[in-house]
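Exostosin-2
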Amino acid sequence: MCASVKYGSRGPALIPRMKTKHRIYYITLFSVVLLGLIATGMFQFWPHSIESSAEWSLDRRSVHDAPLVRIPMSSPIPERGDLSCRMHTCFDVYRCGYNPKNKIKVYIYPLQRFVDEVGVPISSTGLSREYNDLLSAISDSDFYTDDVTRACLFIPSTDVLNQNSLRIRETAQALAMLPRWDKGMNHLLFNMLPGGPPDYNTALDVPRDRALLAGGGFSTWTYRQGYDVSIPVYSPLSAEVDLPERQPGPRRYFILSSQTAIHREYRVELERLKEENGEALLLLDKCSNLSQGLASVRKRCYKGQVYDYPQILQESSFCVVLRGARLGQATLSDVLQAGCVPVIMADSYILPFSEVLDWKRASVVIPEEKLPEMYTILKSIPHRQVEEMQRQARWFWEAYFSSMKAIGMTTLQIINDRIYPYAARTYEEWNNPSVVKWSSVNSPLFLPLIPPRSPGFTAVVLTYDRIESLFRVITEISKVPSLAKLLVVWNNQNKSPPEESLWPKVTVPLKVVRTKENKLSNRFFPFDEIETEAVLAIDDDIIMLTSDELQFGYEVWREFPDRLVGYPGRLHLWDHEMGKWKYESEWTNEVSMVLTGAAFYHKYFNYLYTYKMPGDIKNWVDAHMNCEDIAMNFLVANITGKAPIKVTPRKKFKCPECTAIDGLSLDQTHMVERSECINKFASVFGTMPLKVVEHRADPVLYKDDFPEKLKSFPNIGSL
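Tokens:
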């Protein structure tokens, strides 16, 4: 039996047609569901950095909008603080784990308003602008994560920068209520004004269990070495007053004291120094004739004369920073901003970021008992060193003190370096201003095995007044096939170089650079004109080297681009009778140095010599007008761990006409000073990096009984 099927004009009518109003209803419902799914997906996968960057901005979120949390009176109180804590005992590094960027992840707790049972806040000021700036900087940095499970370090949103505004017991209870507190493990607190009257403890009095403390005012008694971080006391004037950088050099005053609340005994002693040294010392105090307010904070007075503060700090070479009720003083930040060398007198004070910063380069630390001798001590510092300290002081402020962001990022980087020591910043990265454009130069340690021959080398000739021998050197060097450029370093400020028409005619570019001071280190300055990888340093009296010897030396350097490749060889020996190192220039079977009066090296070492030479070696060389070549040998050997390479047998290089008046190296005291140099440099480096070898490089067919025309380098000089 068959069922009949009705056909319409549009096909079989298997399903009744949906009414129009029902169709619209289902389409609308489907659209709403689809839009909901899209919105959910966008919320789930949208970058969280957008949210985190807004969370800590006072412009978008007020502390009054934060949820209120009441602290029961019976809430637990953390322990006082474990002075024995170290990173390996009180910090769980396994939370940090491994990540390709070698960066810790920092979580900031959500903002909350803690009050006691009767509704009184734990802080009289709430969230300060400084702490908000700090949290905002961290939330905008690569350290931040909003995923609490990924965090290595936790920072409470409770502001404890100023202990004066805190209720100690209730603040400690609030910390203990944090969900991840765990006796303070992996928690970091920032505090700049610790302690309170009458004793003014040098660390935060809030009980904090095992939490790390970034504190501004630690003493050697409260600072946990390698665990806590000593930070500066931020000066609000840093943001309010713009002090343009001033060039280092002598200032109107030699010593200036600007603090207003120093102990009476210190004030009396400073007044005595003022009487003894007159106008060299300016002793300021607060202005009694001005009404209290913001204007008076920025003024200092001396006998009725009013000075603008902190601008007056730029008028002095040295600025006194004495301890007050607290060890840490905001004055230190003001002094650094002014480029004034701080004279710090605060016994047992742990200087800010002293774990990584070399304060000897930017300040003078004097025991409080030696305050009467301050003027004499400061007068003994050379002018050149004072200028370097002024420059370093200003850079310290710009890099580490200038803002709450700078302070916070430096603190986190120090902790990061402890956790990932293999990726930590070096001493140079922490302490050397990044003024060098390293992008244009490569380290020879990472060059191809053999640099290309085509670019050739740049000959850098250091000269002072020997025009005739200089021209002879230029003429001989110009014959070398691989010479790309001649650079003459004119080291005489009292005499102009010869006119252009008098110089020898050469086929390569010749440039004369006039220096501002007569310093031997000028020969190793990384001049922009040096475009080749290879540099030939040569004196203006080395006229006996032939073009074949120079070309062969360059070919040897191409095989060993990380070495010093030179001609005059020297040796260092240990003098057992004297118990110190000795410089030896006699003919021996061994070599540990080649003199840069004629030597090839990679231009990378010019940058290292000029900007990264350890200690005061460069200044010492310039002051003594000797040993720049020994310093370069120390530097290269210390970096590479390798000995230099002597090429060709020649031992005599200088022009026979040169007299003792013409050259430095012929002075009678020369050899004694050279030995002193070796001992000085070994002391600064903390080791003896020079390596002794018993070989030299000669051309393959140098001594073979072979036709001269078939030898690549036939004109190799004899002894």
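Confidence is low (pLDDT under 50) at residues 1-18, 40-61, 655-666.
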